[in-house]
Amino acid sequence: MSAIRSISRETAKARVPAEKSCPWCCDTIPREAKKCRSCGEWVVGTSHGIVAALLRLLGVAWMCVSVAIAAGLWYAGQALRGWVWMHSVNQQLTPRVVDFLLYVVIAIVLLKGIAVGVGFGIIARLSPRRPRWWT
Ligand SMILES: [Zn+2]
Description:
Blueprint: H1 2-15, E1 19-21, E2 28-30, E3 46-47, H2 50-87, H3 95-126, E4 130-131
Antiparallel strand pairs: 1-2, 3-4
The chain binds zinc ion.
């Protein structure tokens, strides 16, 4: 009975090999390894970490705030355009000039917001990958 048990334990140990094959370079590495010693690739799930996730979230929030500011400028600009149209304070300051200046300012706000958001995303991607702590 004990002989059968020891045999089944032997086969169970043989079924779980001490080494595995790296999916990237096919070299044999220890089963518990997280990183391949031959090619340096992670063989477990990795992530950029919580700081990178927060940085990416900050970039998205920055883009949303920029879009909201641009929308606010658009509404304020429409009111200003109507006021200029009604009062004609200056012969040079036509509603078309107000429109042009408004479009330039809105374009600058939107482009800056997108550039900062994308830049934060790039910085988050550049942070080194580490094994996920939740797996
Ligand atoms: Zn490898």
